[in-house]
Design a protein that fits this description.
Keywords: Membrane, Transmembrane, Transmembrane helix
Strand content: under 5%
Shape: globular
Mean pLDDT: 85
Structural class: mainly alpha
Order of helices and strands: HHHHHHHHHHHHHHHHHHHH
Pfam families: ArsP_2 (PF11449)
Transmembrane segments: 49-68, 89-112, 118-138, 145-165, 199-218, 230-248, 281-301, 313-338, 358-391
Protein name: Manganese transporter
Number of helices: 20
Number of strands: 0
InterPro entries: ArsP_2
Length: 394
């Protein structure tokens, strides 16, 4: 019979086995930093990812989750929301445009339960940009809010058109009670989740100050009278540390567990929620940045120039990636846009066609509706992406 102590030991070892595939990221980062050939470029990339992306994303997410807590305490707009089909579509577009996938998931589940119509589903899936919105707002606020506004308009128009074509119950499955299986979260995962919150609680303020000063081209090393590259190394170490914590919070068992954000407790503190979302976004950003930088470094090929050669196909590429469920691939596209490898037309077509994590419950509970709604969201994505390309990029 296995004792509790031996069980704990065997479990701890299993957490560090190949079954826990997220660990491959921090292990790879340590290997790249350890290798002399890749050390400099990896440290620089990780530092840039932490100070210029992760910190701003965390700061934005903390504000967002605090505001969500405040807004969630009032339900005065519920009556207006349910007043008409058009109102439902407009409000669904606004919910979809909110950064993250929460609004889109709410509308999708309301459609399945019969509270809103199919046009609202198309509107919210068209308007949503998922977690990639946090990244875009943090890095380029004007562009981020502009894309959100565009999503609201395109989503509302698409939803109204779909309402004219279909009844509210179009492709809605018979309602059935869905019981979520209770799942015991292993102790190590709970500790890692809590440590993520503690990490960003203590790091956020000083990191934000350093990030802002860096944005104004202030030499932090010189300002603090520390040796050259000290801040770069600190950023790289903090990035690897946050990825180590992130790697221990969730098992990767299928596609959904790879590309969708971690589940969060509703009652969690806003900083805890922000920490979990930040590390998920950061993981995909780091992967995108390293692929871009290491490919350019070893091959000598300028990926920006390569992608320019596919100019006319770029909006279609962005659209196609947007059709993939989950936020991970979309964060990858936004990261490539921010690094200059993808044009705005590809970013726009991806932002409109992508449905984030909201597509997972839709596929599980109403697969036909999910597929048709995704197809409908691809149409305005094609129009907007190529419209921008022909007007501004040719």
């Amino acid at each position: 019979m296995m004792t509790s102590n031996s069980f704990s030991q065997s479990f701890s070892f299993s957490q560090f086995s190949l079954q826990h595939k997220r660990l491959l990221l921090p292990i790879t980062l340590l290997a790249l930093v350890g290798a002399e050939a890749t050390r400099k470029i990896t440290v620089t990339t990780l530092s840039d990812a932490f100070w210029a992306v992760s910190t701003y994303v965390a700061f934005t997410l903390v504000i967002y989750h605090y505001l969500s807590n405040i807004m969630g305490k009032t339900n005065r707009i519920t009556a207006l929301y349910n007043k008409s089909r058009t109102n439902q579509v407009v409000f669904s577009s606004l919910l979809g445009a909110l950064p993250g996938c929460g609004g889109a998931i709410v509308v999708t589940t309301q459609y399945i339960s019969g509270k809103v119509g199919f046009g609202s589903v198309v509107a919210v899936l068209t308007a949503t940009m998922g977690d990639a919105a946090f990244l875009l707002i943090a890095a380029q606020p004007k562009v981020g809010f502009g894309v959100m506004a565009l999503g609201v308009v395109v989503g509302a128009v698409s939803g109204i058109i779909v309402n004219a074509l279909h009844k509210d119950d179009f492709l809605r499955p018979e309602t059935q009670e869905v019981i979520e299986p209770k799942r015991d979260i292993p102790c190590l995962q709970v500790k890692a989740i809590n440590l993520q919150g503690a990490f960003w609680k203590w790091v956020l303020v000083p990191a934000t100050i350093i990030a802002v000063l860096g944005s104004f081209q202030v030499d932090i090393n010189q300002l603090l009278y520390v040796p050259e590259h000290t801040i770069e190394w600190i950023g790289a170490i903090l990035a690897i540390g946050s990825m180590m914590l992130w790697s221990l919070t969730k098992e990767i068992s299928d596609y959904q567990s790879t590309v969708s954000e971690d589940n969060k407790c509703i009652s969690s503190h806003p900083i805890q929620k922000a920490a979990q979302d930040t590390n998920f976004v950061s993981a995909w950003v780091i992967v995108a940045f390293l692929i871009f930088e290491l490919t350019t470094y070893f091959s000598g090929v300028d990926l920006h120039t390569v992608f320019l050669g596919y100019g006319m196909w770029m909006p279609l590429i962005g659209l196609a990636i947007g059709l993939l469920p989950g936020c991970g691939p979309q964060i990858l596209v936004t990261s490539l846009y921010l690094s200059g490898a993808m044009p705005m037309s590809a970013q726009l077509s991806n932002a409109i066609s992508n449905d984030g994590d909201a597509l997972f419950p839709a596929i599980a509970l109403a697969p036909k509706a999910a597929m048709v709604a995704t197809f409908y969201s691809a149409v305005p994505a094609f129009v907007v992406g190529y419209g921008y390309y022909f007007l501004f990029e040719m």
